[in-house]
Design goal:
Elements: H1 10-26, E1 31-47, E2 50-68, E3 71-77, H2 82-97, H3 130-145, E4 151-170, E5 175-193, E6 196-206, H4 215-228, E7 238-244, H5 249-259, H6 262-266, E8 287-289, E9 312-316, E10 319-320, H7 327-333, E11 347-349, H8 356-363, E12 366-373, E13 383-394, E14 397-410, H9 411-416, E15 418-421, E16 431-432, E17 436-444
Parallel strand pairs: 7-12, 11-16
Antiparallel strand pairs: 1-2, 1-4, 2-3, 4-5, 5-6, 7-17, 8-9, 8-11, 9-10, 12-13, 13-14, 14-17, 15-17
Helix pairs in contact: 1-2, 3-4
């Protein structure tokens, strides 16, 4: 696969967007917004050194939203022909005519729209031939098998190469877009014998393939994680401190962002209603949003509404400074958009002074969680209950692996009960944080 073989040029995407806006205006739409995109890539998976899957994907689409007064209609197509594009606009208009009026519907204020599209270094195509991808996956998996004869099976090693570009535009004159890439190498293996078998995995992801971890290192670490879980025990039900490993700590921050996002707030389905300006975390917690980090996995100069993104403080000294709002949800709440129509952009949780081992010592005795199961979060009440696996910690050291447990608490108490954030930050998505230590949760075991 070559690195730059888009079927459509950026100018062609802009031309398609202009055609949509013009036709919508000609058909008496009050306003219109359009997204034109194209993406492609390949994924290879090897299992026990045999090629299991080779997948190629190529997608394109046009999403069109029209407004007739305060009635909204949306339609989409993957056909870029002129006739299909016009039919899609007509379909959106037809939907709008049968939709109830919504006083919050409509485009953003013009002054809020992005005026330029700075280069955020998001595009690094990886010209990877399928034979090379297979070789990388095989080396990754073999390095896992080489760790120990107890690594007996594999769920596969995978290599994925993806790139896309898009243009967004609306009838207020906004037009912007850019190309982006995201690649990863992953490995999942099974270790043990007879009745004691354990699985674990590891992966590395980045926009630039040159920043990916070595495939041999990924396989090696996946194997060592699986081996470390052998001879796992059940533990008795107790209330102890819980340390969320850096791989899982972003899920806690994700629970927080979901609770202070516009959709949950205007529907009154959040345990953090009316929390703006109030203490949500302990006073040492700082969370900032940084949308313009070069090469960031969640960087963007504007959101899905075309609203310009800006750096901001979300949590300062534990106090909530701002929600996550789109144009629509902001209007529903009588507030201003925060440029988060497509979610959060590089949330950075300030790290403390301790590394991972330092957090274990600070915890002393408790549970290190390295795997979470299920979706047991009630955002209305904040009740939290999820299956888990990890390690029991005694005297600041890992004592033995544990499994078949459930950790439970209430998110409001858990967020206020954060004791420390480690400096072992692992960047894999939109939320960047080290391991998070919570003062007390119920661990349900035998």
């Amino acid at each position: 696969m070559s690195g730059n073989d888009f079927s459509y040029t950026p100018e062609k995407l802009r031309e398609l967007a202009r055609d949509v806006l013009q036709y919508a205006a000609d058909t008496k739409a009050t306003a219109c917004e359009v997204d034109v995109s194209e993406g492609f890539g390949q994924s290879v998976t090897v299992r026990k050194q045999a090629v299991e899957t080779i997948e190629y994907n190529r997608d394109k689409g046009i999403g069109i939203t029209v407004y007739v007064g305060q009635r909204r209609g949306h339609a989409s197509t993957s056909d870029f022909s002129s006739a299909a594009v016009r039919a899609t606009v007509d379909a959106a208009l037809s939907i709008a005519k049968f939709t109830a009026e919504d006083p919050c519907a409509g485009l953003p204020e013009e002054k809020l729209l992005a005026k330029r599209t700075p280069d955020l270094d998001l595009y690094h195509p990886w010209a990877l031939e399928v034979e090379e991808a297979i070789d990388i996956a095989r080396r990754c998996e073999q390095s896992a098998f080489d760790v120990s004869p107890l690594v007996r099976n594999s769920e596969g090693a995978s290599v994925s190469v993806q790139q896309a570009h898009f243009v967004s535009a609306n009838s207020l004159g906004f037009m912007g877009g850019y190309p982006s890439t995201r690649h990863y190498i992953a490995c999942a293996v099974i270790a043990g014998k007879r009745g004691d078998m354990q699985r674990d995995d590891w992966y590395s992801t980045h926009r630039d393939a040159r920043a990916l971890a070595a495939p041999e290192a990924i396989g090696d670490y996946a194997a060592r994680r699986a081996l470390s879980r052998l001879k796992a025990r059940k533990i008795k039900t107790c209330q102890v401190p819980v340390l969320f490993e850096a791989t899982l700590a972003p899920t806690l921050i994700g629970n927080f962002t979901a609770a202070v996002s516009g959709g949950a707030l205007y529907r009154k389905s959040s345990f953090l209603l009316d929390s703006l300006g109030k203490q949500v975390f302990p006073d040492f917690m700082q969370i900032d949003e940084r949308p313009h980090i070069k090469g960031g996995l969640a960087s963007s100069p504007f959101d899905d509404d075309g609203v310009v993104t800006r750096d901001r403080s979300v949590v300062k000294d534990g106090v909530l400074q701002g929600y996550f709002l789109s144009t629509y949800t902001a209007r529903k709440l009588g507030m201003a958009t925060t440029g988060n129509a497509c979610g959060s952009h590089n949330l950075i949780v300030k790290s403390g002074k301790h590394d991972f081992r330092g957090l274990l010592k600070k915890m002393g005795k408790g549970l290190l969680v390295t795997e979470l199961l299920g979706q047991g979060v009630n955002y209305v009440t904040g009740d939290y209950s999820r299956g888990a696996a990890g390690y029991w910690v005694e005297n600041g050291e890992i004592a033995y692996p544990v499994h078949e447990i459930t950790i439970a608490g209430n998110l409001k108490d858990m967020l206020r009960g954060i004791v420390d954030v480690g400096n072992d930050v692992l960047v894999r998505g939109s939320k960047q944080t080290g391991s998070i230590l919570v003062d007390r949760m119920t661990v349900a075991g035998s």
